[in-house]
Design goal:
Number of helices: 22
EC number: 3.2.1.52
Family: Belongs to the glycosyl hydrolase 20 family.
Number of strands: 35
Radius of gyration: 29 Å
Strand content: 15-25%
CATH architecture of the largest domain: Alpha-Beta Barrel
Helix content: 25-40%
Keywords: Glycosidase, Hydrolase, Signal
Distance between the termini: 66 Å
Shape: globular
Structural class: alpha/beta
CATH superfamily of the largest domain: Glycosidases
CATH topology of the largest domain: TIM Barrel
Pfam family, one: Glyco_hydro_20
CATH class of the largest domain: Alpha Beta
Largest sheet: 8 strands, parallel, barrel
Organism: Pseudoalteromonas byunsanensis
Length: 859
Amino acid sequence: MSFKQTIMASVLASVPLLANATLSDSELQRFTQGTALTFAVEDNFHNGASSFIGSMTLTNNSGVALPKGVGEWHIYIHSVRKIHTKQASGLKVEHINGDLHRFVPTEEFAGLANGEQLSVKFEAGAWIAAYSDFMPRAFMVVNEQTPAIFANTDTEDLQQFIAPIERENQLRRYNEPLDRTQLATAQLRYERNQSVVKVSEEAALKRIIPKPNKVDFNRGSALLDSNWQIRFAGRLKSELEVFQQDLAKYGLKLTAQPDHIAEQKQPTVMLKVDSSIADGKAQSYRLVIDDERIEIVGADNAGVFYGMQSLLALFPADAHERVTLQNVEIEDSPRLSWRGMHYDNARNFHGKEAMFKLVEQMARYKMNVLHWHLSDDEGWRLEIPGLPELTRIGAYRCFDLTEQNCLLTQLGTGPFKSGSGNGYLSTEDFVALLKFAKARHINIVPEIESPGHARASIKAMEARYNKLMKQGKKEQAGAYLLSEPGDQSQYITVQSYTDNSINVCLDSSYAFMEKVTYELQSMYREAGTGLTNLHFGGDEVGAGSWGESKACQSLFSRSGNGVSGVADLKPYFTQRVADMLNKRGITPGAWEDGLMYDRVNPFNREAFANKAFTANVWDNIWEWGVADRAYRLANEGYQVILSHGTHLYFDHPYEAHPDERGYYWATRYIDTKKTFGYMPDDVYGNADFTRTREPIVNLEALVGRELPQLEKPENILGIQGQVWSETIRTEEQVLAMIFPRILAVAERAWHKSKWESTGLNSKEFDKDWQLFAAALSLKELEKLQQDKVNANLPVPGAKLENGSLVANSAFPHLTIEYSLDAGQNWQVYTAPVTVNDSAAVRLRTRIGENNMSRVTGLN
C-alpha cells in the first residue's frame, strides 16, 4: 500500500460510518439491533388534563452512526396519545393516522454517533400513568428496504423499553384538577381486604356462581361415580353430549339412555323438561340431589343445561372419578334474559382458541350472549365469501403506506404481517364456533362497525376497487365501495383517525352491509342456527364526516327523502340498515351514541319498524351528564343492555398501578369487587366517583338537571361485560383481563342480591362478596386453570405490625406466598412472619404451578 493510500485509509477510518451515505440493509439491521429505543413519561403535570410531556431516547451502541442533516431513514412508533410536537432534536414529527407517528431527520439533525444518546421530548394528548399506554415494536425504515424493529421493543415485557414510572408527576394523571386516586400499595390493599366476615371452606365449596335463587341443603349425600346411569328426554340429546364431555373431565363416564328405556337398578341422573316449573319462566330449572338419584328438570332445554352447570359447580376442583355431593334442593331462574360478554378482537386478534375458551367458560356461568366485535378501524376478523379483501387486507397490519397489501400498522403490531394482533376466523372456523356456542345455549351477536370505526372495511373495499378498476371492471369495482373518491371532508376521531367513516350517502355502502349480512346468515344456517341479532355499531362518528361529500350534497338536494343536511345522515343510515335487517327478520343493535340526535334526545323509536332494537348503553361518566341515557332509551322503547364503562369495561386496570394493563378513561380501575357491586336495577345508585376520584354525594347537582326515572323497566334487557383490545395483544393477556371479572357479571345478570336494597356499605354486601370471593379462590380459579384459562389474581395486601409481616388477599383462602430475600426463595404464608429487612420482602398470590399475581413489595 502506498503512503497516499495509507493516509486515505486512515482518514476514512476516522469518519463516522455513513456520514455521507444512506444506511444499507445490513447497517439498518445492526443499528436497530444495537440501539435501545426507550420511552418515558417526563411530566403529567404539564398542562392540566390536556397533555403531557413524553420522550423517546435512542442509545446507540450499534457501531453504526446516523449522519447529521437530512437523511433517508425514518423512525416509526405507535403512540395512542397523539403527538402535538412538530419538531424536536432536529427531527420532524409527523402523525400518519391512528397511533402511527413518524420521526424524520431535518437539516438541524446533529447526527448520532456510536456511543451517543439522543433524547427527543414531545408533547402529546392526555396523560400516561401506565406502562401499557406505550406500544411495542417501534421500527426504522430506509427507502425501499425491509423495515427493522428496534430489538429491545420487540417484546411484551414493556419495561424493556419504558423508563420507570415512579415519580408523583408520572404516577398521577394530572394535578389540575387534582387527581385524587389512591395509588395501590401493599398497605392500601391490606386495608381494603380487611373484613369481619369469615368464610369457611365448606361454605365456599358449596357456593354456586351465579348464586341460585333458592338452595336448601339436606342431610345425607350422593357418591357420584361411573356406576351411575343417565336417563334423558329425547329433546335433550345436544345438552347431554356437552354434559358427558364435562363429566369426563372429572373422570366420570356415565352411560346414558333416552327416558323410554327402563332404568337399571343403579343410581340415576334424570334429565327432564317440564314447562310448568317456575311458572314457565324461560331458562328456569330445579335440581334435586338425593342419595342415589339426581334430578334436573328445566322449563326448557336451556333450563336443563343450566341445572347441569349448577350440578358441576358443586364439584370440587380436584374431583376425579368419585364426587361426594351433599343432598340439596335448588330452584332457580335467571334475573335477566341477556347475560352477555362483548369481545373486541378487531383491534387485536388473539387466535381462534381464545374464542372457544371464552364461549366454554361463559356457558359454565350461565351467560348466554357473546357480542363479537369483529370489525373496527384496526381489523376485520371474519372471512366473507365474495369479499376476500376484507381478510386479505383488513385482517393484517404491516408497513404499507399505500394499504394495498395490508392495513396501516397500529397498536404495537410493528411492520410485519407476522406481528401481534393479525389474523381472522375462516368461515369454517366460525361455523364450528357457532355450533359449539349453540350447544351451550349461547347466541353469538356479530358486530359490523359502521358508519364510524370502519377503517378496516373501508380500506379493504378501496383495495378491491383499485384492483377491479385496473382490470377495467368499473361497475364491479364500485359495487361495495364505502368511500367516495375525492371526498375532502375533514375530521379526526377520538382514536386519531381521519378516514374511518363509511360514506352513508353511497348506495354501495348499503350493498356492502347487505352482502355481509347475507353471508353471515348463510354461516348461521350452515351451523344449524339462525342470525337473530346484528349489531351495526353507530358510535363515535368523527365530527365533520361527510361535510364535503358530493354524494351527500346530491342527497340533500333531493326532496322527500328526509335528509336536508349532515345532521340527518346518522338517523338516515340507521333507518336504512334497520329496514334491511327488518326484512331479514334480524333485530338491530347499536351503541347508545349511535341512536341519539344529541346528548339527551334519542332517535324516534317509532320510525323503526323493527319489533325490537337493542341499545348498548356505555357512557356513564357521571360528570359528562349523559349517564341517564339508559333510562331515556328504555323509556323511548329501545331494549337496553347495560354496558357501563365505570363497572363493566374489562379493558380497564384491576387496580391503580402503573404495572396494570389497560386504558382508564372511564374510571381509574375496575376490580372484580367493583363489578360484583354493580346494580342493574338502579343505574343512578352506581354513581360512586367522578373521573378524578372525587366521591359523588349528589348526582343531580353534579349533572345540573333533573334525571329521568325509568318508566319502562321491561325494556332493560340485561347487562354485559366489555373488553376492548387496544392494549391487549395475546390470548393470555385477554383471558386475564376478562377472568375473573366476567364471573361477577354472570352473578349480577342471574341473581338479585338482598344487599342491592341496603347498599355497598352494608353487612349484607360484605357477606355476599366474601363468600363469592372465597368460592373463586377455592374452586373456580383452579377450574379455569384446568381449562387453560389463567385468570388474573389479586396482588396481596400486606404490612408490618410490630416487626411482623401480616398479609391478606382480596379473595379469602387464596394461597399467598412471601419471600424475605427479594424473590429468590418463596414460602407459603400462613401466619405473621418476623421480618428483619422490610426492603427485601416480596409477596404474590398463586393458583397451581403456572398462575401467579404480580409481585409486590412493602414500599
